[in-house]
Structure formats: C-alpha cells, structure tokens
Amino acid sequence: GQNIDQPTEMTATEGAIVQINCTYQTSGFNGLFWYQQHAGEAPTFLSYNVLDGLEEKGRFSSFLSRSKGYSYLLLKELQMKDSASYLCAVQIGTASKLTFGTGTRLQVTL
Amino acid sequence: GAVVSQHPSRVICKSGTSVKIECRSLDFQATTMFWYRQFPKKSLMLMATSNEGSKATYEQGVEKDKFLINHASLTLSTLTVTSAHPEDSSFYICSARDPVPDTQYFGPGTRLTVL
Question: With b meaning 16 or more CB within 10 Å and e meaning fewer, what string describes A55-94?
C-alpha cells in the first residue's frame, strides 16, 4: 500500500526558518507536491518535484530524494500568515492520482 | 496558477435529499478532475477520478451509487450526493488536472451539512 508520513504539528517563530519533512513508501512514484491549506479553505499549490534536488520559489523551497523516499519543504523568513497546514502529496501511476499525507499544522508565533 | 471554481460553497440539507456540487475549470480544459473528501483536521481522501466522456473511477470503499459523478464537458464535473445522511456531512473538494505541467488545481471546496 501507500504510506506517507509527516509530523503532525510544528511551531516556529516569525522571521525564522522551518523545515517540514515528508517520507513516503509508494509504488509507481511520478512526483511529489506540496500544498498549503488554511483552515476551512481548499489547498493551494506550492511546489512540484519530480527529479532529485532542490526547487526554490521565493521564500519556499522543496527538496526531493527519490532513492530515499524523502522530501522536505523549507519556509524562510516566516510570517504569521504562514500559519497553516502543509500537505505532502505523492503522484502515483499514469492516472495522475494524488495520495496525501496527514498534513503538518504549522503555527507561527511572535 | 489555474482557477477552479466550486458551487455551492456551503449547503445545508435534510436527511434523505440529494445534493449536487459543481466543479468548473475556468481557464483551461480538464479531461480529468478529482473529487476529495476531508474531515476536520484530517487530510484529503480521494473519492473518485472523473474522466470527461467516460465513467468515473471510484476508490475502494466509496459507493458509486451514493456519490454520482458526471463529467459532461471539458470544464465541468458534478458530484451528486444521493439520499444524504448526517454522516455524509463533510468538506468536499474537487481538483482539475492541468496536463502541462501535470498539476492539480483545487476548487475552494463545498461544506455539506446534512441535518
């Protein structure tokens, strides 16, 4: 079966850097997505990794190691508005289906 | 990113009635759309894959006769919750697949409450 693990909760200070890890054990891996979701809202797309390495997009970066089944999302210069859930999702097979991890609730404090 | 709309955003209905939720891709054509369900403080659970012009593919444990999916055009998929019961109350979210690059864009979600 598919297994995707993320920490349940994290807390970080405004202005700091936080790394949210995601490990996965899946078959038919095609890529990995990170989404941000505020309470009561739909997820918004943050990043997509299909090859090993780091993808940087502004304050957010995402890393993938396919051989290790590991990814992380790095958030720099944290802002209060970054308080949200961060969902790791693995794209499996040719049907482009996404399997989501449990999500990490990030709380940014002053 | 691409824009996906959902309607209605909120619906309250009586037990036993049916509710239709629409999902539209506004600025691209989506041959594939997905329907998810999310319980409070839980992650998204894929219910079914909606394919334009063909039958939907349901995930294991999802009743296809209860959750009817129709993908009549390249920009519209509908989910009908038939004979709704209180346990069907949930946040339903659709996504539309943009093949280039292969990305899913999510609608704003529909909060269904069955009394």
Answer: beeeebbbbbeeeebebbbebeebeeebbbbbbbbbbbee
